[in-house]
Amino acid sequence: MDKTINQKAWFLVLPVFLVVAFSAILPLMTVVNYSMQDTFGNNQFFWNGVGWFKELLDPSTDLGGRFLASLGRNLLFSVIILAIEVPLGIVVALSMPRDGWSVAACLVILALPLLIPWNVVGTIWQIFGRPDIGLLGYTLNSLGINYNYVSNEFDAWATVIVMDVWHWTSLVALLCYAGLKSIPDAYYQAAQIDGASRWAVFTAIQLPKMNRVLLIAVLLRFMDSFMIYTEPFVVTGGGPGNSTTFVSIELVKIALGQFDLGKAAALSLVYNLIILIVCWVFYTVMTNAGAERPVKQGAE
Amino acid sequence: MHSIPGRRVILITFLIFLLLPIYWLVNMSFKTNAEIVSTMTLWPHQPTLENYRRIFTDESWYSGYINSLTYVLINTVISIAVALPAAYGFSRYRFLGDKHLFFWLLSNRMAPAAVYALPFFNLYSAINLFDTPWAVALAHCIFNVPLAVWILEGFVSGVPREIDETAFLDGYSFPRFFIKILVPLIASGIGVAAFFCFMFSWVELLLARTLTSVNAKPISAIMTRTVSAAGMDWGLLAAAGVLTIIPGALVIWFVRNYIARGFALGRV
């Protein structure tokens, strides 16, 4: 695009840089510092070099075992919710009414779960799923299904996943809806003249037009599910056993529960690194998708 | 051609799925604890406002709402104020390291709060901001400022360059152009960005809880109190939960027409 080169633009960006650097770089430096040390309390620290990192990546140690197990659970969780939320979000976006007052009503209801504080989301599902006082738990149990998210691993997972679908599918749906709205009517008319089937309209017009927003949706959903903490913590507390202990829950346990600062810091760095890499991959794909766009349209 | 067969059924089923758990919370908030524990009722048979009365008359409860709203508002103002010039810079100019800087900002939006909880605690204790709304507001900047830059950059890019050039030819200074011309043009974008800052600051708990102890405790942290006191006060918990949903619902209503575009971060 026709951006002019102007180094003075740094002055415009400087406030943002300072604010974010204050909250990002300074704390990260303390984390790096801690990650190389061990403490036995009393603010006495001992040099430990890369010891924590070695332990972290070795599944036979306590720390490594816990980290890798929670990482595996977290990845499984992210994959499952993406596999449900993305198709469901697309279907809901395609089902939206075209115009009239019902559009606004649907948008408001869709956005509602997104603005509920995360621990309240947890509380809502904690209550809703309880076999004694919750509608869901009570109904399932009176139907003869033995459902109890406190003691049964499978039920705990199902509850956490349904909760996440409830909480975040709207985000995917709203993004896709925005993408669909940007398709000019002429495209649909052309498809009608060509006698295209509904499926062809979806794969040839709607899906390509939703490409960019879908990328944003997958990126946001993957990242947010990868750092999920509050909602499962409120509902299951990471249990039963460790079955719903995701990486952030494990990290907070080590950092604020046991005050094992060295271990927690090393875990934080590895955790951050994974996120940085995934983020970079998405960012590259996203900017490339943007760059290819005009060329593609010209060729059509 | 927009839509798919059976769309009404799908949409209505989904909306009911969204509303049912919320309805259950509202339902419980109007019940007495005796009714909650003893029977299963689909609506309150002895409706009571007692739960709400307790929240509005007890300062330790309602101060939580004031604390939460205080840091959310401070955060929104800071985020938008610093993000506006940056969004303009990113949208109009190329400069050394612009892409790297943009990526670095984006990566901070994705950073897990759990990683920062402890270092933030140390940092804000060291500069005597611990347990003030400022600590939480500044801490939330780490994900809200990048998001605001991201959204506003999309909206600023939608304003044609010719407008800038004409204004400068007319003798507008940069600050005057910015306030008199650019800001009104992207007013809806600023609204959307403010909505998102409000939203993410309002829903976050981990940092808000870690950085406060008594004076600035947010409502979502106070809610956990109901667990410890003599069994579980379900009615009170439900009422407190309902009251945390209301500010969000009000804000959605104001931005409902821009919501879809906003969620696409101004990039459709």
What's the helix and strand layout?
The complex is a heterodimer of chains A (300) and B (268).
Chain A: E1 4-5, H1 9-35, E2 37-39, E3 45-47, H2 51-56, H3 62-95, H4 101-111, H5 118-129, H6 135-142, H7 153-181, H8 185-193, H9 198-226, H10 230-236, H11 247-257, H12 261-299
Antiparallel strand pairs in A: 2-3
Helix pairs in contact in A: 1-12, 3-7, 3-9, 5-10, 7-9, 7-10, 9-12, 11-12
Chain B: H1 7-29, H2 33-38, H3 50-57, H4 59-92, E1 93-94, H5 98-110, H6 113-126, H7 133-157, H8 161-169, H9 174-185, H10 187-203, H11 206-210, H12 219-222, H13 225-228, H14 234-255, H15 259-263
Provide the descriptors you would attach to this structure in a database record.
heterodimer; A: mainly alpha; 12 helices; disordered C terminus; B: 268 residues; mainly alpha; globular
Oligomerization state: heterodimer
- Strands of the widest sheet of chain A, in order across it, are 2-3
Shape of chain A: globular
> What composes the largest sheet of chain B?
none
Q: How widely separated are the two ends of chain A?
A: 21 Å
Q: Helicity level of chain B, as a percent range?
A: over 70%
Largest sheet of chain A: 2 strands, antiparallel
| Count of extended strands of chain B | 1
- Give start-end ranges of low-pLDDT stretches of chain A: 293-300
Provide the gyration radius of chain B in Å: 23 Å
End-to-end span of chain B in angstroms?
Answer: 20 Å
Can you write the helix and strand succession of chain A as a string?
Answer: EHEEHHHHHHHHHHH
What's the helix-strand series of chain B?
Answer: HHHHEHHHHHHHHHHH
Number of strands of chain A: 3
Average per-residue pLDDT of chain A, rounded, comes to 83
Provide the β-strand percentage band of chain A: under 5%
The total count of helices of chain B amounts to 15
Q: Strand share of the residues of chain B?
A: under 5%
Shape of chain B: globular
